[in-house]
Amino acid sequence: MKVEEALQILKEHGYKYTGKREEMIRICAAEKRYLSAKDIMERIKEQYPTLSFDTVYRNISTFVELGILEETELEGEGRFRLACSADGHHHHHVICTECGKTSSLPGCPMNVMASVPEDFQVTGHKFEVYGTCKECVAQSN
Amino acid sequence: MKVEEALQILKEHGYKYTGKREEMIRICAAEKRYLSAKDIMERIKEQYPTLSFDTVYRNISTFVELGILEETELEGEGRFRLACSADGHHHHHVICTECGKTSSLPGCPMNVMASVPEDFQVTGHKFEVYGTCKECVAQSN
DNA sequence: CTTTAAATCGGATTTGTTCTGATTTGTTAC
DNA sequence: GTAACAAATCAGAACAAATCCGATTTAAAG
């Protein structure tokens, strides 16, 4: 997803434009990486030093609801990245547990592995591979 | 896994036997379901009304380390169930997001979907299907 | 420009979890 | 069985992530 697309989605849903929202989206767009709310706060402080964490959290959940951000959870805290499944076709990620960097995996296990018991009404699924990326492996030596 | 097995594992690793530990394991063994720390506390209070949450949390993490419990995360809190992948062969679960009930899925996407980029040093993976079980669907009507 | 609802602020609050220091309990050696 | 020691537990303080709240500011529509 591109920054402009994300802003368009906000507009379409009747949300107001604010520089803070745009900047948050820009920050997420700048890295193929899951960021924590704290990471985003840190980066946005350069431009908006007084931004409150309430604003960051509230906007993040708006973005997640609208499908602008994708969410996961690492070490007990929420992590976010600009949605990319929406772009082409649905896929999953390899995630570096050190730095949050991601790499796409082709395909989805739901297509390959049938046989979900029929008495479950399926609402979603998660497939994530965890590991350490090249850079983080190097750094830990 | 059976309660006796779990106690055996504790013993082998030099952990002491306590009634509280056994009861915690029994509680988890009694249900094919992910329980929160709070769920476990609630159930154990019948027998050990003064048990502190510190003890519950500490024992849970010991159990997870030893592979007695499996861990996941639902709605921002840790959930636990008696390990069953260890029993037969490795597999994954469909999980009811209402009540934590689980159902096994045969196989593992890691076997089916090769192609993890080689510059990632893989340490783990998660495949979970979420939904609402028959009972919880019925209840919400 | 005025109006109004949405967004933001700043700080208090809540929730899940971990830490700390004092006390109790299982286990081992006698 | 008893003594001694390390591990386990207790109670509550502390912590971190996330949410809530009332007051203020701001984007956008008329």
UniProtKB/TrEMBL annotation, chains A, B:
CDD domains: Fur_like (cd07153)
Localization terms from the record: Cytoplasm
Record has Manganese as a keyword: no
Gene3D superfamilies reported in the protein's UniProt record: 3.30.1490.190, Winged helix-like DNA-binding domain superfamily/Winged helix DNA-binding domain
Keyword hit for Zinc: yes
SUPFAM superfamilies attached to this UniProt entry: Winged helix' DNA-binding domain
One Gene Ontology biological process: regulation of secondary metabolite biosynthetic process
Binding of Fe cation, residues: H90, H125
This protein's GO CC annotations: cytoplasm
InterPro entries in alphabetical order: FUR (IPR002481), Fur_C (IPR043135), WH-like_DNA-bd_sf (IPR036388), WH_DNA-bd_sf (IPR036390)
Residues reported to bind Zn(2+): C96, C99, C133, C136
Entry superkingdom: Bacteria
Keywords, in A-Z order: Cytoplasm, DNA-binding, Iron, Metal-binding, Repressor, Transcription, Transcription regulation, Zinc
Cofactor binding note of this UniProt entry: Binds 1 Mn(2+) or Fe(2+) ion per subunit. Binds 1 zinc ion per subunit.
Pfam families xrefs: FUR
An example Gene Ontology molecular-function term: zinc ion binding
Family stated for the protein in its record: Belongs to the Fur family.
Record-given protein name: Zinc-specific metallo-regulatory protein
Organism for this UniProt entry: Brevibacillus parabrevis
Phylogenetic lineage: Bacteria, Bacillati, Bacillota, Bacilli, Bacillales
